[in-house]
Specification:
It comes from Salvator merianae. There is one protein chain. The chain is mostly helical and 513 residues long. It has 25 helices and no strands. The protein is globular. The termini are far apart.
């Protein structure tokens, strides 16, 4: 009988799922535009987050974290460690499809064809694709767990520089979880609750982004009601982490009900018609009072919600339980941020309202920077610079802003460090503390660096703000540059002043967490 030729690509397209992480549509699996230093930093930060997550997770959800840790190790060129991670998972959980697929991929890259072939054969058998070898157990449950692990991975992608990218990854993660639930009708409830928790986290992040965009009520409403239903299940979990965060999430949703034209029906259906959001936040804190890891997470959420006093109280609780800066550097970092926002005026962040709070912010930033990862976060350098600016230490502030720009990723839209740097330079010029020659040199250098680092539109937006607030200094600088024949930057400054930015909404830092 003549063999039928099979197109592999067509066969793959027809499959409902493909095990493994290395084929997923994640930036992690594609060439990065960032330099290796920045890419490595981002990967290390994400891996640090995953190790942090490992302390929270129990049961099969730990395999979702560990598989992803193996992927990050692979991309950090720790291939042997990646292999060991996948091998250990396959021994502990011989039915883990992702571990076998990931292990096959690593063996293939190590040119170990026989080992890769054995993994692929084992994978085919577990998926029920081998007609001669029928596996024990239910292939549907294996597929469900495989898809849930893949859905989890999307939360840890790297290089997401705009809201559309973030929305796309969250939607992809939720799609994987929905497929997992369709396959996993017989999955134990406790395991499903871990899926529900991750799904609610994705939904709340998405809702925050849609809320910022406006005019998305119809899209938000369906997801909002579904999130409430999922939370009802998570609140019953025996896992302290899930339960505490679920109460916090419920408080967030109840606060957001005012953003709808009418109260979402899900609030009434789930029995929360009279529930006070503050009571929900209080329950979250009470549940986690002896757990510094969960307290740190709550503090971060409260900070992003603008609840600085609650964030500070929770940070203090976390540091009372675990004061070591090496083990608890995130609490020191969050405490520093909160102190900064308590120390400046809320409108423009230009006036000192509490000097002790500002000094405390600098002290806790120093604590956070005792660990290597704390030294490479641009946000810490930006906030340190702003603290020093408020304290009239302009030269020290300038060094922090420069460091923040250098640490930022290529393609980043967080250009505040660039604006702060230019404003500080112009301030020193207006005070006769630097001369025209030095100002020209510095502005020319850092505008060039900014154009290499950030989207051009963002650079122009920041230049326009600087020109508007420091018109006299910019005009004097422009005259000096024209006299020196440096007309290119002058042309850019005047084009910036005349450019219409109203068509483009400024992309502020997302308040999703």
């Amino acid at each position: 009988m003549e063999e039928i030729e099979v197109d592999i690509d067509t066969l793959i397209d027809e499959m409902d799922y493909i095990p493994g992480h290395f084929h997923l549509d994640m930036n992690l699996n594609f060439e990065s535009s960032s330099s290796m230093n920045f890419q490595g930093r981002d990967l290390k930060l994400k891996r640090e987050s995953l190790i942090y997550e490992l302390d929270f997770e129990t049961g099969s959800q730990r395999y979702a974290v560990r598989n992803l840790l193996g992927v990050f190790s692979f991309y950090l060129e720790e291939v042997e460690q990646a292999k060991e991670i996948f091998l250990l998972i396959s021994q502990e959980d011989p039915e883990n499809l992702n571990a076998w697929a990931n292990l096959a991929y690593v063996y293939d890259r190590l040119d170990k064809e026989q080992e890769a072939a054995k993994c692929t054969e084992r994978l085919s058998c577990l998926m029920g694709l081998d007609s001669e070898k029928k596996p024990l157990g239910d292939p549907q449950l294996r597929a469900a767990r495989c898809l849930a692990e893949q859905g989890y991975a999307y939360a840890f992608d790297v290089g997401l520089v705009n809201e559309d990218d973030k929305v796309g990854k969250l939607v992809a993660g939720l799609t994987s979880y929905s497929k997992a639930l369709a396959y996993g009708k017989e999955i134990p409830l406790e395991e499903k609750q871990s899926w529900y928790f991750t799904m609610t986290t994705f939904h709340i992040r998405l809702d925050g982004m849609w809320l910022n965009k406006g005019n998305e009520e119809e899209k938000r409403l369906t997801a909002f009601n579904r999130t409430l239903v999922l939370l009802q299940q998570v609140l019953k979990s025996s896992n302290l982490h899930y339960r505490a965060l679920a109460w916090c999430y419920l408080g967030i949703l109840l606060e957001r009900k005012e953003s709808f034209c009418a109260t979402p029906m899900g609030i009434h259906d789930c029995g929360h018609s009279g529930t006070d959001p503050l009571d929900c936040f209080g329950k979250a804190i009470e549940i986690s009072r002896d757990n510094p890891l969960v307290l740190n997470r709550l503090a971060k959420i409260f900070h992003f919600l603008g609840k600085q006093e609650m964030a500070m109280a929770v940070c203090n609780m976390a540091l009372d339980v675990l004061p070591d800066p090496v083990l608890n550097w995130q609490a020191y970092c969050m405490r520093a941020k909160v102190y900064y926002y308590m120390g400046v005026d809320a409108m423009q962040e230009l006036f000192l309202v509490d000097e002790d709070a500002m000094n405390n912010a600098l002290m806790f930033f120093a604590k956070a920077m005792e660990l290597d990862l704390g030294k490479v976060l641009p946000e810490i350098q930006l906030l340190r610079g702003k603290c020093l600016r408020i304290k009239n230490e302009e030269l020290n502030a300038i060094e922090c802003f420069k460091r923040a720009i250098e640490l930022d990723d290529v393609g980043s839209v967080y250009t505040e460090s660039f604006r702060c740097l230019l404003e500080m330079l112009l301030l020193l010029f207006s005070q006769k503390r630097i001369n025209t020659e030095m100002l020209m040199k510095e502005v020319e250098l850092w505008v060039k660096k900014a154009e290499e680092k950030y989207p051009k539109l963002r650079v122009r937006q920041e230049l326009r703000l600087v020109c508007r607030h420091h018109t006299a200094e910019v005009l004097e600088l422009s005259k000096a540059m024209v006299a020196k024949g440096k007309t290119e930057l002058v042309k850019l400054l005047f084009e910036t002043m005349n450019y219409d930015f109203n068509k483009t909404k400024r992309n502020e830092r997302s308040l999703s967490f």
